[in-house]
């Protein structure tokens, strides 16, 4: 089925372009497809990241309603497929939002927030999703900065 005229017009009107220069070298794409076989199996996936994987906490801000930690770590993809991820995206950045006090010491719910397309930095997810969840349900948050966005955006990328 050919694309509709509406789809064609919409695509021409978009300001941002995705993957204009392709998805990378054929060799890297092949490596990604091979690695997919490993990460799609639970038994092998669990063994990819050690329990003591190094994570650096760079900031710990305390507020009246919560604590917000910021940190970074090397993307595990860079360890398993060196060179596939651009240099700027190799270091993953995140925020963790924790309540001042957990309602139950044995039950500490956390929600992982991944960014949607065009969602740079943490502000939107932190203020519109994570903080209301924290206030209403005492659920903490881990907010990850996506590769190619915000702090992980390569300099040459528009």
From TrEMBL:
Protein name: Uncharacterized protein C4orf29-like protein
Organism of origin: Bactrocera dorsalis
Pfam families documented for this protein: ABHD18
Lineage: superkingdom: Eukaryota
Stored PANTHER family: PROTEIN ABHD18 (PTHR13617)
InterPro entries: ABHD18
């Amino acid at each position: 089925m050919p694309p509709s005229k509406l789809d064609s017009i919409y695509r021409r009107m978009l300001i941002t372009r995705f993957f204009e220069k392709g998805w990378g070298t054929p060799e890297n794409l092949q490596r990604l497809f091979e690695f997919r076989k490993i990460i799609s199996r639970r038994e092998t996936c669990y063994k990819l990241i050690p329990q003591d994987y190094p994570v650096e906490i760079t900031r710990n801000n305390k507020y009246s309603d919560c604590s917000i930690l910021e940190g970074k770590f090397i993307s595990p993809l860079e360890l398993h497929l060196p060179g596939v991820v651009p240099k700027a995206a190799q270091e993953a950045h995140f925020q963790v939002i924790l309540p001042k006090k957990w309602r139950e010491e044995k039950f500490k719910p956390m929600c992982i927030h991944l960014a949607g397309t065009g969602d740079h930095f943490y502000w939107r997810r932190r203020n519109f999703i994570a903080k209301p969840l924290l206030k209403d349900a005492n659920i903490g948050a881990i907010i990850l900065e996506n590769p190619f966005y915000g702090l992980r955006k390569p300099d040459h990328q528009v």
